[in-house]
Structure prediction request, 426 residues.
Amino acid sequence: MATSNSLTASTGLRRLIAAAGMTNLADGIALLVWAWMASLLTRDPVLVAVLPVAIRLPWFLFSLPAGLVTDRMDRLRLMRLMDMVRMAAFAGAGLSTWLVLPLAPATETGTAEPVLFTTLVICALLVGTAEVFRDTAAQTILPTLVSSRGLERANARLYAAELTGNALLSPAFGAILIGAFVWLPFGANAVLFLAALIVLSGLRGDFAPPVRTRRNWRAELCEGLTFLRDAPFLQVLAVVTATWNLCHQMVVIGLILHVQENLGLDATIYGLILGAGAVGGVAGGFVAERAIARIGAGTAAQWSTLASAICFASIGLAPNGWALAIVLVLFEFQSVFWNVVSISYRQRVIPNALLGRVNGIYRLLSWGMMPIGLLLSGVTVRLAEIVADRDLALLAPFALAGLLTAVLTAGIWKALIEGFGNERSP
Prediction:
């Protein structure tokens, strides 16, 4: 296990988790603000999805290059460089927004501020691209800080920290910031990435991949593809994660308009609802390790996928903000289990020298579905409006997400037990 002479592995892990909490707080604020800013400029459901799509599209475009780069350079250095890019992009988005205030009223078609909208799309693309490289590198660092036996605990704690920042604190914090000044969330994110850089500056150690004499990117990519081709269960996990991410992004963008138009809630209440949901995820992060050790990874994965289908469908049935918050608490609680078992499995079975490339390919298949899900949400609403009133059409993404996840769960139910072997955590 590679670690610094001056820092114990546990200290290094704490720094990694602290930086992840800060960057995920910024990511969570951005996730709320990109979509909410779009809704301030246009009421077109497809255009509202454009800014969130710009964040997720790089996962489709750059997952493979990110894997290659991660297996070629010092992973910690790559994380720091990408956090610098995101800091600069958020500062640019904040300045651009401030310069055009006050905003013109949102339009039913097109955008109220075309120049600002275009600038925000460019900034979102930069942030999303940096996130691809940064997160791919970060996921390869964790196995160098903990033993194989400690992966479930480390991933659970890391996921809890990410959720605390990304979903518990950021929605309310972001809503308060955007309610005060629409440019302020972008400025706050720039400060958060600066803080994360300071924390990571104290992390010392050898985080470079094993040295290889061959430096042909085609051959290196083929090595990763061959490994994944010969690992059918990793392919199953990629399909599950891809479908889940597609459905989740459908729900994320659908929720913005549903909360505003059907439930009549403002940005602050929306942020509090998302924050309440994150409580479930944080709780799941603290019990996942023990629960998985007791029931087995296969069973935990099975019930997580089934619970996802139920929660997706239930979001549209919640009659008010309180009920919606309860559904999101349950949804976030169960999602932790899937992330812990699937990520720990990948980190355990993929060799360190291939970890960046295989993770890059895996994320191309899984995270690459996110922009499709965002666009599909808007398209689904538009198509539903042909045969239903607007209020019912806004519920269509939740119903479709529940149906797709239910079909997936039925198809892979036995494969999860066979793949994980339902062994208790080592």
User: Anything to note?
Assistant: Residues 1-8 have pLDDT under 50 and may be disordered. Residues 9-41 form the longest helix (33 residues).
